[in-house]
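User: My instructor asked us to take a sequence, write out its structure as tokens, and then describe one feature of it. I'm not sure where to start. Here is the sequence I was given:
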Amino acid sequence: MNCKLWVAAASMLLYAAGQPTAVIEKPKARTVNTGGCRILSNNTFSGTWGPSALPVLALTIGPGSTMADQMHANKAKYTGPGRYPNEIIAVYLGKTALEDSYAGLGTVTMAADGHSGTFALNDGSASGHFDCGSAPSQ
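Assistant: Let's start with the prediction itself. The structure tokens for your sequence are:
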């Protein structure tokens, strides 16, 4: 394969994969273009967007969610596209985890493409949408 053809093919793959993005619509508009998703060995979906020290959006679906028992979260295994009620969602818009943060149980809906979806906290305090950039893998 010649160099120009290889570069064009690689560019198309990068474009097709997309960029991890989270858009917070409520309570304040905020967009982040870093992060990603993965599926843990126990069929738990994990996604974070923003700086690793304090991500703007973090959510989990499945039995391996931290604090699932204490928060009475849904512990059903992640099975792909669909609606997942009572999952753990955290939105951090401040400089610390205690400042301008919104966390609790909410609904995550994974779109048919397997890598994008929506989220909304049950109390209505935060909502938005996300894209993993590509389908998460283990």
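For the description part of your assignment, you could build on this observation: The longest strand covers residues 82-92. Try explaining in your own words what that tells you about the chain.
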